[in-house]
Amino acid sequence: MLDPFNRDINYLRISVTDRCDFRCVYCMSENMTFLPKANLLTLEELYRLASLFIECGIRKIRLTGGEPLVRKNLIWLIEKLSQKIGKSNLEEITMTTNGSQLAGFATDLANNKIKRINISIDTLDGELFKKITRWGDLSKVLDGVKAAQDAGIRIKINTVALKGINDHEIPSIIRWAHSNGMDITLIETMPMGDIDGDRTENYLPLMDYVKVLEKEFTLTGSDYHTGGPSRYYTANETGGKIGLITPLSHNFCADCNRVRVTCTGKMYMCLGQDDAVDFNKLMRDNASDDSIIQLIHRSISLKPKSHDFKIDKYNNTPAVARHMSVTGG
Ligand code: SAM
Ligand code: SF4
Predict the structure, then answer these.
(1) In what order do the strands lie in the sheet with 11-15?
(2) Which of 64, 218, 287, 314 lies 20 to 30 Å from 119, alpha-carbon distance?
(3) What is the distance between the terminal CA atoms of the chain, rounded to a whole angstrom?
């Protein structure tokens, strides 16, 4: 599917739930109001919608959330979608998870053709982990990392870079990831949804932080590309890759190949814009495949050129009202 800026849209992210068993300080407030369960598409409806997207040309699906592994029976959806790999446009299913439930699900994921996942870990200090996630337990996440590796799943670590919170620890997180055979991506905080604090205080511009990393590692720019917004470097000392997601200090919208569907069936053409197309009514009315496919094509034709993110010290309102947990990362 080509959008108006000639970008081939072949990557769909599905946020299967807006709920989560963590409350990361940069992502959610402590007392979140979640969507009424009745508004959520059923797993059957999500499967049907995803199948129609695949028919239109989607080759890669990432399941995200909220925390995808807290959605009941998610493995059913993964199993159904995985049966399409190699028999349709679909080539790969991946997941972004906080890892809290992974120890119990790693084998199921591997048995259903999930070959790589992203796990979000912002610190290796158990106390700080509790402070950042509010409700998380680092040891459970590390058990999940081990279980996924034992099941043969490749892991990339996602770390949100937070000035004054975990920036001192980032080089050692990189060394830990690389010494355990995992690449890592550092992410700038994005102004999405109200949180209890002020994000501008902890915003760390990663394009500047590269200079700090260069004191620790010999970095070689890499042309490695996952079709994502990361710019990659290889650390010569470890041989591992470091990706930087820098939507604020440097945007990569020109290469964007993705759209996002929420658990209620809303499609966001851009993570950093509020425009959305709602598939919920069509799904609930059991509309024909043709009318849903028409709406998919119409939505792609509305994909904007770039996002509207900016971190603004003087105007502390989020660029988009919804939390990252609604559309997934
Ligand atoms: N719960 C899962 C997890 O944490 O991996 C999947 C969903 S989470 C929204 C996806 C990614 O977005 C995580 O790596 C998380 O750290 C990141 N994230 C959440 N809120 C963010 C924000 N405001 N700015 C930047 N990254 C954010
Ligand atoms: Fe949950 Fe992921 Fe958001 Fe943390 S970043 S609160 S784990 S959805």
Answers:
(1) 219-222, 231-235, 241-245, 183-187, 154-160, 116-120, 92-97, 60-64, 11-15, 258-261, 266-268, 276-278
(2) 218
(3) 22
Residue 323 reports pLDDT greater than 80: no
Ligand 2 atom showing the smallest separation from residue 324 Cα: 3
Asked whether 98 and 119 are in contact (CB, 8 A), the reply is: yes
CA distance 245 to 190: 10
- Determine the distance separating the centroid of ligand 2 and the alpha carbon of 56, expressed in angstroms: 30
Closest ligand, as measured to the CA of 190: 1
CB of 136 shorter than 6 A to ligand 2? no
Q: Which atom of ligand 1 is nearest to the CA of 122?
A: 16
Q: Please tell me which residue, 318 or 182, carries the higher pLDDT value.
A: 182
pLDDT digits (tens, 9 = 90+) for 99-140: 999 999 999 999 999 999 999 999 999 999 999 999 999 999
Neighbour-count burial of 102, counting CB atoms closer than 10 A to its CB (0-12 exposed, 13-18 middle, 19+ buried): buried
**Nearest residue by C-alpha to atom 21 in ligand 1:** 27
Query: pTM of the full predicted structure?
Result: 0.93
In DSSP notation, 218-245 reads -EEEE----SSS-EEEEETTT--EEEEE
The two tokens of residue 113 are: 């053709």
Cβ of 193 less than 6 Å from ligand 1: no
Q: Which domains does the chain have, with CATH numbers?
A: 11-327 (3.20.20.70)
The one-letter amino acid code at 136 reads G
